[in-house]
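anyone seen this seq b4? input:
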Amino acid sequence: MKPEIHNIKSETDRLIIRPLQNQDYERWMEGFRNRLPSQHKYDGNKMDMHGWTPQKFNEDVITKLQQLADRDEAYVFGVFRKSDQKHIGKVELSTIMRDEFQWGLLGYTIHNQYWRNGYGKEAVKEALSLAFKELHFHRVEAHINIDNKPSIKLAESAGMEFECTRKGFIYEFEEWTDNLVYFLNAK
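predicted toks r here
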């Protein structure tokens, strides 16, 4: 049975994790506008927010994310801070394979102005819970660049286990790069 993403919402002590909605436009914009300069190689540059209107947000973000969920390809959840409803990042769960595998991939991004507050760990732990309880994955992996120490630390602190190194696994930075595979199975 395919999950209905609009029915999925979860809360931790400090965070709300749920699908983005049209009314999140201003919070979403603010999260990107207030990002600090890139802190390291995997932090990405500030996104150009010029031209992002509520209509573009609805068409290019909300509608496309809903279509991905409808096809059971990916589930992207906004991460919001409870205390002030600020959009602080996202967690995403993509389907690698269903059938007898029920195998998914975890991705996560916390806006760098919110780093070093434990939000990443809290969001990832809750995303893993959603992956097993709501999205019915049995196994979830995180594929991490071998030199991305903050992401490795985050995966480990959220309870994921190192499995292996996949050589020449992902094409990025104009070359095939190795990735570490961290995983967690449903209990």
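Residues 121 and 158 are 6 Å apart (CA to CA). The helical segments are 25-33, 54-70, 119-133, 149-157. kinda curious what u guys think
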